[in-house]
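Tutorial, part two.
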Amino acid sequence: MSVSSFGSYTDVHTTGSATYGNVRHPLSPAYGYGIVLGLGFTFAFVMICTTWLLKRYQNEKQTVEQFTTAGRVVKTGLVACSVVSSWTWSATLLQSSGVAYRYGVSGPFWYASGATIQILLFATLAIELKRRAPNAHTFLEAIRARYGFYAHVVFIFFGLFTNILVTAMLLTGGSAVVESITGMPTPVACFMLPIGVVLYTLFGGLKATFMADYIHTCVLMIILLIFAITTYITSPLLGSPKAVYELLVEMAKESPVDGNQDGSYLTMRSREGAMFFIINLVGNFGSVFCDNGYYNKAIAASPVSAFPGYVLGGLAWFGIPWLAATTMGLAGLALSKNPAFPIYPEQLTVPEVNAGLVLPMAATALLGKGGAVCAILLIFMVLTSATSAELISVSSICTFDIYQFYFKPLAGDRQLIWFAHAVVILFGVFSAAFATGLYYVGVSMGYLYLLNGIIISPAVLPAALTLLSKKQSMWAATLSPVLGLACSLVTWLVVAKFKYGKITVATTGENLPMLCGNVVALCSPAIFIPIITFITGADNYDWLSMRQIQLVGEGNPDKAQGLDQPEEINPQTGEVTYIDPYQDQMDHLEKVLGRSKKITIGMSLVMLIIWPMPFFGTGYIFSEGFFTAWIYAAIGWLLLSTLCVSIYPLYESRESIKHVVVSLMKDLCGIHPRTIQREWEMYGSSTEQVAAALRADPESIGGISRPQTMSPDSARMEGLGIDGVQAKDLRT
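Running the prediction step on this input gives:
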């Protein structure tokens, strides 16, 4: 099987009740409906119950602020978990396994490293967004505040198109897997898969997305570890790295890989793999930097959690495609001529590989029907968690950047949350219909994955410079993405025409046109921005208009700036000292910023150059011992990732979890917890002074007299015997 390109992106239609192309379904359609609908409604029910518990015991009201920003207090572990979940698409598992099937060990690493550095580098943007626009709900609000109408409209287009493409990728890949395993028709799967996601997103908003991300990620990690342990330890078909190594050596002799060192599957030197790496690297900058969902998570994070959350999330995510593809992609390749392989003696065709069928076929070969169930469950988890983030992203853009600003500037909280809910439903329906249309015209997940960067990467550089540079002019930010998009589309189509003689889905999906289009998309704005800035004049932006973005429902600009909150009152003169509530946040973020740039750039250099390039340059072919070490390193990395995104969030939130559980138990016993709820909200469970006062005299708090010259907060603090310094610490 000589592999030289991504091949033709022709459609793979159902050809009977028992096949998907060459693939025979290991499970009946009932499994598909049961998992897709059953799990969807189950998660919706769990998230609805969780939202109710938080509302009752944590007093989290479902305002539009809470719906879209989760209160802006999400902690590091949950931010990392949510980043991992949002960045784990269907393609993360399916496309990475496909490139491993084509190119061998280089494919998983190129996929993982080429899509990790964007998350690491985005950590710096997350800090800048928290510094520059602390009250923003979307990144586009910052664009509008700085540049005005024209740039705002341009970036709305790129932001929404990013969400549309990502959601289409999720649904096309997920529906293809459901079809291949169960026989559920692809159009039906496209419409069924989003139902549960829409429901729990409606009821819980971004907070429900964070909580669902945690559950999904835990299940994802467990299933991936099951696959790895089965493949490399327990399977009678493989059972050790040595067995896989020997089969890959035999495969290279029978069907060497065109462009790989000596045709081997066990080398990092792969011409086609390197081309995929560049496409992957360039395209994924657009998928992160232009997706409002990642800015949403930065906005939702507490100031101290944004940077470590994204760094931990990026490093934890790296292990997922690396191990998933190194396990399932190589297992599928090693077993492709084994009678246990579902389509033996036939081989997976290029369209079937592009559709993402390597992983489910390998899972079925290794674990039978249990493996098929694990595969469909895995894809369901990945699809629903990432889709939820896209729903919130689109809802935020349409609510704050379109509806509120251009149509209903005075809309109240109830109107905005109603509109946000409506957008979630409408976008869910639109995405299902769009994915179905792509299926019928023959566009696969793999094609969309490569096309992604050509369309959205022109906005990456101007978007980043909006937060990083005060010199970029309004016209440079407005025109450079549009000109870059025109250049990338022309380059992509012209290369396809000259290289292959015609423009079709097949020819435009080849490596070379995709590579050229993606590179031009990312790099051309670097030429346009300085030229346009020189012509129109450099800006000297002071960042003030971004700071003036207001919270919803707070029409008083002083309140939006926090200027109506007294720090203290002079008892002699009555003079009130005002403070900026964001000053401590700004000071902290300023300290972190310089360190973040050094750390993220250093990590990126390690993953892009220091680690892989010596192997690529020397053309080293893995020995059996080195391959074994490589496998165990990937497993170890995923175990550390599991600790980071599964155990650490529980540890961080242990007090809140304890409070909800204790309050629920009291409620069930007839003791209503709201007596102490107000104090819990105000000071938090870690405030030792409040806890001690409550233990000493539970009735004292409610009876505190409040002098007219003191704020309610100050009166409560004085009643508890807390001085001014301690009170300031508590408020912080």
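The two ends are 63 Å apart (CA to CA). In part three we will examine how such features are distributed along the chain.
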